[in-house]
Amino acid sequence: MTTPSPFYLDCDTGIDDALALAYLLASPFACVKGIGTVSGNVSAAVGARNTLDLLALASSDDVPVALGAHDPLAGSFNGGAPWVHGENGIGGVSLPTAAASVAEESAAEMLVRLAHSYPGTLRVVAIGPLTNIAEALRLEPALPSLVVSVTVMGGAALAPGNITPVAEANIWHDPEAAALVLAADWDVTLVPLDVTMASVLEETHRQSLLASSSRVAQVLGEMLGYYFRFYEDIYGRPCSAMHDPLAAALAVGAVKASVAPVVRAAVDTSEGAGRGQTICDLRGLYAGYPPVAGARCRVVLSLEEDFAPHLVETLLTLERAGQPVPVG
Ligand code: BDR
Ligand code: CA
Predict the structure, then answer these.
(1) Domain containing 314: what range?
(2) What is the pLDDT of residues 251-260, one digit of tens each?
(3) How far apart are CA 216 and CA 23, in angstroms?
(4) Pocket of ligand 1 (CB under 6 A)
(5) CATH number, domain at 22?
């Protein structure tokens, strides 16, 4: 029997963030020790509200939630992406309000505390802008030696961006923070649009969630209805990309990359057309990606297997673990 690893999740909850959170709660390989929120899809405060409510619905209200940065390191929060995630961030789905409230510590303080509590074993999964992670690096310069892995959903290596032609949302919302995180003295696994846009959840998968007796799975299916409408314009059918849950599954180790070179990566923090671009040095492509001295960023470009069946199968285990409640 494998002992679950301790996880810190940093998110901007967000429909696909909700999927990632539920996935980590359902995974037998993960034990979520704390969650920090950051402004991105919604404000950090709305993200915290959504996170608390989801945790309560999943009977996991013992997991502490810390409010993180409202604004990026430079500039101000731009108001989020209601056309993708809905005004409330979770596709207009209304959840019962949890009794729990946010922790007294900030998200960055929580990450530092957990890194000291679980030295050498804490896994960090960042699925929103990287402001809190950059702040934690400032608070505790030894952070890289304390955590065992850092997995970031973000960037576009060879694929186009989703905010600008070259910039992906999580990086674009706070390029300065992303640059600090990629330059820190740790190995980062980057899960960019190259692989998340190629991992698609279909209507049949959504129907499986809606048909579950777990209320958590049902509400995820309901939220996905909103998300699918946004992605219909991109894929030409009702379905969605799976950004954040894929990063969670790769961090857990339940999903394996087939191509994931370790390369040098930087972030464009200029004010020009390239702002927010992740510049991954993939020039080793034609030589089968030979090792690069000093490279620290593992860029996931493809997977061994289709991710959607594993995601749905894992989420449906909430049916057995959670409290089934009647629909309606
Ligand atoms: C990322 O941006 C957000 O909209 C999603 O939650 C995901 O983390 C995809 O670019
Ligand atoms: Ca997110």
Answers:
(1) 5-320
(2) 999 999 999 9
(3) 11
(4) 14, 16-17, 41, 81, 84, 127-128, 153, 162, 168-170, 243-244
(5) 3.90.245.10
